[in-house]
Amino acid sequence: MLFSRWTLVLLAAAACGDNLARPDAQAPPIDAPSPDTPPDADPLETLAGTGLCADRACTQINSGIREYEPRVSFWDDTAIKRRWIYLPPGTKIDTSDMDHWVFPVGTKIWKEFTRDGKRIETRLIMKQLPDDAAPGAWFYQAYLWAVTQDVTIAVPDGLKDAGGTQHDIPSRGDCRSCHDRLRPTRVLGFEAIQLDYDARAGLTDLGDLIVAGLLTVNPAGAAAPRFPLPGTTVDQTALSYLHANCGHCHNPTSDVHDVAPLDLRLRTTALGSVTGTPAYMTAVGKDAAIQYTENNVNYTKLIIPADAPNSAVIGRMNSRMGIRFMPAIAVETVDPAGQIALVAWINSL
Question: CA 223, CA 204: separation in Å to the nearest integer?
Fold first, then answer.
């Protein structure tokens, strides 16, 4: 085994100052049994203890866990991802606000990252308290896969260039900084707009949730899309990209909005026209909150119609200045497909 049991316990117990330590976590007493004794181990010290898999190498997913894939994925520097969700039996997602789902206590969501042909990490977020805003309501943890691909270790402080790749594992604080900017839900990607499509066999989509009776309020419509996006394919691709890659930070529930009043998240209630979407209304022709010059270009407007090269949204995607580069966390390279989509949209306006 790559990691000793004691090393796992120590690393899993390490905190990163995000006030998200498990409420029931306690330091072992001095006379505690050997750390190799399974009953004394914290089940969350490895991925195997989170309930996702039937075996520690995670070759078989436990029953009652649903795999899903959002319609548009967040760019993660070419990483291949898989995602799963667990809802406790007898519970439902509160969808009384279709744009801000509230999940039941006990909800678990995992995301696995594969880079260069090998699993690098699997992340867990788990709801522990009814009040999403309460300290410790959501528990965040990332697990590093060993090179042998048969065991994991919790890495609460994150890890750069994990597994000899360019993939960086976020700290628990990094996880919180993203997820806490979409309130009250904290869950990214498992939502009405992102699941509103006919997913391939084996994946859960919005229709499956309706059939399974897992939503407190079902959306109207007999089939996908229940929330058709406005405009042309160019419009829809760009708006979906902004929603998935930028909307979790740039939305009115985020502290970022206090500095830059930009709203890039789609709403099920604002899909009547392209010009009526939050992204269009708060970005097109609007002054950039942070204006700057880079590569002899003065970026003063977020989006200038028909002028992508001088639009700050594109400039921030291309910036080599760390403080300016967007997305600000979990990304190191420019998404080529995403940039093509946004440039095409801006130039079409």
Answer: 14
